[in-house]
Sequence to fold (332 residues):
Amino acid sequence: MILHLHKTTTQAQAQQLAESIQAILIKQEQFVLVTSSRVKVVPEEAVAFTEKSFPTDTDIQLAGRGYINAVREVNLGNGVVIGGTTNHTALITGPCSVESETQIEAAAELCVELGVKIMRAGAFKPRTSPYTFQGLGVEGLKLLDKMRNKYGLAIITEVRDSTHVDDVIAYSDIIQIGAKSMYDHGILRKCGQTTKPVMLKRGFGTTLQEFVQSAEFILSGGNSNVILCERGIRTFETKTRFTLDLCGVAWLKQYTNLPVIVDPSHAIGYAYGVADLSRASVAMGVDGLLVETHPNPKVAKSDAEQQLNFEEFRNLHASLGKVAEAVGRKIV
Fold:
């Protein structure tokens, strides 16, 4: 249950009440208490302080449509918005990893050429094998920051563990929590302590309930700027890397109030299918689309097979606007 306390409630009163009813205390425009969803009636000691209550069926609470029946808006500044009532699908592109200044500058120039306002690239890479490229670390973050300042791009990059969160906050505009880190409570709680937007990727072996409940850790920490990213789940199929769960995307759009982004590159794992999956995602009216590009995918240090070359991305970009227009949306 979510309780909105009267605005006259003091910090001390709210804190004492939170301890009394075993609730999480959040400070927004007013104090908010969140208890277990098992609580269906306002606790007696909270009645005098409660302005409004929201009982819920599951522990998808702050992210649920029963609480906020609209898509939350995540504002990155400089007119860049994800979600809300804009009817825009934000396009995000860039390489899997920052490899060099020449490589990342070429990606930034492609973004400017096509009007893409958000660039992605990994500086810390939580790879499956310890023997593969692990990223440039802080050096990579500084290169991303250089491109941000030079070209006016918003930057999204991944945090590998909780010790990197402060660095990623300093050098980026969106913190990415990858599929392998979705259950990392150190990262989730650290991201809940900032207002920096967070894009949470679905773990490839998790249910939708588990996915959104991970987002609840960030929301309940006080950070309302959370974006969900579907990037494919592991199924019995072996011909593709993962299976893009567009059914899950439909569920997230229907039952949660968080913006939803789709990453077709990681889902299929092969460049040949990325364009079709991208168009299908845009046709669903998603809030964002993340597509990996590289100046020369054949020499990429990570995920070489799934990254589009620049000409392939230009062709995809040209087609996405028409699909978006057909469903009453716009690519930005």
Q: What stands out?
A: Residues 195 and 207 are 26 Å apart (CA to CA). The first helix runs from residue 11 to 21.
